[in-house]
Structures are given as C-alpha cells and as structure tokens.
Amino acid sequence: MATWIQGRVVEHKHWNAYLHTLYIEAELAPFAAGQFVKLGLEIEGEVVAHPYSLVNPPQQRPLEIFYIEVPEGKLSPHLVPLKPGDVVQLSPTAHGFMTLDEIPAARDLWLIASGTGIGPFLSMLGTEQLWQQYEHAVLVYSVRYQHDLAYLERIQALMTAHPGRLHFVPLVTREASDIGLPCRIQQALQDGRLEHHAQTALSPEHSQVILCGNPQMVEEMQGLLATRGLKKHRRREPGHITTETYW
C-alpha cells in the first residue's frame, strides 16, 4: 500500500479553460529540479494518483504543479474544482532522473518543451546549478494556441536575471499569433528558424538537449537531432539528448 503525505492547496491558478497550476503546502522531502511527485485525491474510497513534475525550484515553496485537464481522465477533472484549504495526497519523495546532476556539462543547454512539459524546465532555470553548469540556455516552448503560453512573466523575469544567457523561442502551431514561430518545433529545426531565433547553433561539440512533452515531438526530434550528430545520453554511454515523455 502506498504511503502518502497530506498537502493543502494555497492557490489555484486557471490559465484558461483547461490549463491550471496548483500551489500546495506540504512537507515534501528535498528534491532536485526536474523531478516529479505523485499527486492524488481520495475518490470513492481510494486514492487516485498521477505523476506531475514540480515547477518550483527546490529552494522555493509552495510546491507548484502545472497540469492540463483531460475530460476523460480519472484524476484531472477532480483537480479543477480544488480551492484554497482543500486537502490533496502526495508521495513523500520526488522521483525521476531528468535532473541536472544526470546531464553532462556543456556550453549550451537546450530545453525543448511542448505543452505542460515546460514545468520541469522552469524549475531547472530557477536554480543556481544550471547557470554554473552552462554558459547559455535556450528555452523552446511549443503550444497549440497563444493562450496556452503560460508563465510568460516568469520567463521574462528569468531573461532579465540572466541577460544574454537565456534565449526564449515560443512556437504557436494552430493559429496566427503575434508571439512565437507559426510552426512545429521539428519544422523550425529543419528549416533553420529554431537556431536563428535562438541565436545559437546546435552541435555535438557544444550542446546538451532535453526534450520534454508530447511523445511524437520527442521521438521525431531525437531522429532529427541524430542527423546532426547528437545521440541519446545514457549513464554508461554519455551523449547529448535526454528525454521525458508526457502521457
């Protein structure tokens, strides 16, 4: 039987009809940026849980979980009505190997996300470790519609805090937008726009890449990056690409 700790909702931000952020106070064990926790609710006498990445850097509280409502999902529709003071269940420790300790140092770190996959990257960018380990970071953030671009104020604050070291490339794929490239990440890589807007070249000599989000994006980007000489990173066989798929 799983062991849970109780958390208490302190804020619930609704970015739009289906994108939300829960802020939770809980006594979670120390964790590393990029890790995830299981978040659960007691539904009909049992705890229904799902893993979610932590958005807040390890040194900051409350805990922060960025999620999308899946109408047919077992848990997320029950999260949407939560309000300050409501109780949730959490795994007592965070897990996952998509952390800065597991990724080799390099000149450039590319953080390539679709949808809610941006969450763990915001956690990483809020640490001193990232800026000690890499000279430059490129945050690539792909969404379907412009109103899906969450956390823009935080991203701007990070760019202000690290002038010239953080480049931001948003993409909006399903509508005309006054912000971001109007294409998928894969297309932007193939036609050169991704590196042009990042003001940074992707190369096995200088780049580490983390892919997080849509499984199709992750798989296709791995293939495209392989044609550029970048390979999957493993502990026993160091490389350039680290991945985590959502859903």
Description:
It is a single chain. The longest helix is centred in the C-terminal third of the chain and has 12 residues, at 215-226. It contains 7 helices and 11 strands. It is globular, with a radius of gyration of 18 Å. The protein has helices spanning 76-79, 119-125, 128-133, 152-161, 185-191, 193-198, 215-226; strands spanning 5-14, 19-25, 36-43, 46-53, 63-68, 87-90, 108-114, 136-143, 166-172, 207-213, 241-245. Helices cover 21% and strands 31% of the residues. The strands form 2 sheets. Strands 4-3-6-1-2-5 form a 6-stranded antiparallel β-sheet. The protein has a 5-stranded parallel β-sheet with strand order 9-8-7-10-11, with helices on both faces. Strand 8 (136-143), helix 4 (152-161) and strand 9 form a beta-alpha-beta unit. 36% of the residues are buried. The model has no long low-confidence stretch (mean pLDDT 96). Helix 5 runs parallel beside helix 7.
Short description:
The chain is an alpha/beta fold and about 250 residues long. It is built from seven helices and eleven strands. Helix 5 (about 185-190) runs parallel beside helix 7.
Average pLDDT number: 96
Helix proportion range: 10-25%
Number of helical segments with 4 or more residues: 7
Total strand segments: 11
Instruction: Give unreliable regions as ranges.
Output: none
Largest sheet: 6 strands, antiparallel
Radius of gyration: 18 Å
SS strand fraction:
25-35%
Strand order of the largest sheet: 4-3-6-1-2-5
Structural class: alpha/beta
